[in-house]
Specification:
- The protein is an all-alpha fold.
- It has a single domain, classed as Amino acid/polyamine transporter I (Up-down Bundle), CATH 1.20.1740.
């Protein structure tokens, strides 16, 4: 930390330990996508279709995380996405990537506040929504205001709760499959052969789940942001990245397999699972089938911690990216200020205010403004992933072009260049096919197209606008900076 003739810190504090980073990697994407959306995925595409969709997206995410791992261990930066894109692609692309990521997570804070108020209504149905939203925002703000260690510690325990529930679920599920628990005979594969087999609804149903699966995995990239405040990123980040494969295998693929074995995909409750109706979460259904009377209440509490965790992570990540944008001259200078604990205080306050304003927008015009914001941010996560694949591909090519030895890399992504190219192609496919159903009717649903794809022109506008004003160009591989 440099003094710079001032008592104010100029750099973020490296306060995240190895266990914090590992839990951020493990718990980053475990949330409503797994606890709730997995049920509707099985109902729409059958257990086989859901498994195949999640395996395909899981492979893409694994390659993306190994790409990010190589970048983050060699150059641990808190504003990693825009910094890498600026150095290895084009400063204008980095500018757009940074603001895209900030917008994505700032709006996510708002969506998590809305979800948390719906969840709490399970216990307090007549309580005012605004009361809970302000309370949850205060908790998230407080955790981020304390110190980076405060964020790391809270995420550690949030992730621990989620992981413990998933592991208990899998143990109970396996015991039920073999007829040891739940008072029934071994399950067998009867649910997989129901109504003509494991695949249901045809290719379009599979495609729909494939698109939705991508949202479930968003959050894994937070390891790249956290690397900039890790005590020892060159050792801790590779350890965290290596957990990605096992998390995908265990927490998503195995969970969907267990649900598919125990709950028929024709079960009417699977399609109804959502924040508003926690009693039909596939986890709740399996636990109740096993004889746990308080399953719905327990799962409600777990999902509440998941929502708070997502909001907490969104606040942390967007604050850091906004601080780096200011530090690089791509955002107002006042956002560079750090308090004595090394927290970007002004960036935190602005992010908190934007999240709250977006949440308040849900109360006006039947939530139309909020719906547009939410749809725009939904596309942002995939654009971030696309940027990671492009940045890594250019990084490795520039590394070799400048005569550097690959042995210098503390962590080397496997399967290069196949990994980033595969991730790029699949991610682009997900982006293009985001709302394919709008094109399958007798007439094109132009409103649906506009709402679903509004994030793309926003990103292109920011990117090309900066490029036009500052006349930036694609950086030649020989000129990319690795310092």
């Amino acid at each position: 930390m440099s003094s710079n003739n001032s008592t104010e810190p100029q750099q973020l504090k490296r306060g995240l330990k190895a266990r914090h980073l590992t839990m951020i990697a493990l718990g980053g994407s475990i949330g409503t996508g797994l606890f709730l959306a997995s049920g509707s995925a099985i109902a729409e595409a059958g257990p086989g279709g859901a498994l195949l969709a999640y395996i395909a997206v899981g492979i893409m995410v694994y390659f993306l995380m190994t790409s990010l791992g190589e970048l983050a261990t060699y150059m641990p930066e808190s504003g990693s996405f825009n910094t890498y894109a600026s150095r290895f692609v084009d400063p204008s692309f980095g500018f757009a990537m940074g603001w895209n990521f900030w917008f994505n997570w700032a709006i996510t804070i708002a969506s998590e506040l809305a979800a948390a108020t719906l969840i709490i209504k399970y216990w307090f149905p007549d309580s005012p929504s605004y009361l809970w939203s302000f309370l949850f925002l205060a908790i998230i703000f407080g955790l981020n205001l304390l110190s980076v260690k405060g964020y790391g510690e809270s995420e550690y325990w949030f992730a621990m709760i989620k992981i413990a529930v998933v592991i208990i679920f899998l143990i109970v599920g396996v015991l039920m499959i073999f007829g040891i628990m739940g008072g029934s005979k071994p399950a067998g594969f009867s649910n997989f052969t129901l109504d003509g087999g494991p695949f249901h609804g045809g290719f379009l149903a599979f495609l729909g789940i494939f698109m939705a699966a991508g949202y479930s995995f968003q959050g894994t990239e937070l390891v790249g942001i956290a690397a900039g405040e890790s005590e020892n990123p060159r050792e801790n980040v590779p350890k965290a990245i290596k957990q990605i494969f096992w998390r995908i295998l265990l927490f998503y693929i195995f969970t969907i397999f267990v649900i598919g074995m125990l709950i028929p995909f024709t079960h009417p409750s699977l399609m109804q699972a959502g924040i508003e109706n926690i009693t039909v979460s596939p986890f709740t259904l399996v636990f109740e089938k096993a004889g746990f009377a308080l399953a719905a209440a327990v799962m409600n509490a777990v999902i509440l911690t998941s929502v708070l965790s997502a909001g907490n992570s969104g606040m942390y990540a967007s604050t850091r990216v906004l601080w780096v944008l200011a530090k690089e001259g791509k955002a107002p200078k006042f956002l560079k200020k750090l308090n004595k604990r090394g927290i970007p205080i002004h960036a935190l306050l602005v992010t908190c205010a934007v999240g709250m304003l977006a949440f308040l927008a849900s109360f006006f015009g039947d939530g139309t403004v909020y719906l547009w914001l939410l749809n725009a941010s939904g596309m942002c996560g995939f654009i971030t992933w696309l940027g990671i694949a492009i940045s890594h591909y250019r990084f490795r090519r520039a590394f070799v072009a400048q005569g550097r030895d690959l042995s210098e890399l503390p962590y080397k992504a496997k399967w290069f260049p196949l990994g980033p190219l595969f991730a790029f192609a699949l991610c682009m496919f997900v982006i293009i096919g985001q709302n394919f159903k709008a094109f399958t009717g007798e007439t094109i649903d132009w409103y649906g197209v506009l709402v679903s794809y509004v994030g793309i022109p926003l990103f292109l506008g920011v990117w090309l606008g900066y490029k036009f004003v500052y006349k930036t160009k694609l950086i030649p591989l020989k000129d990319c900076k690795f310092d």
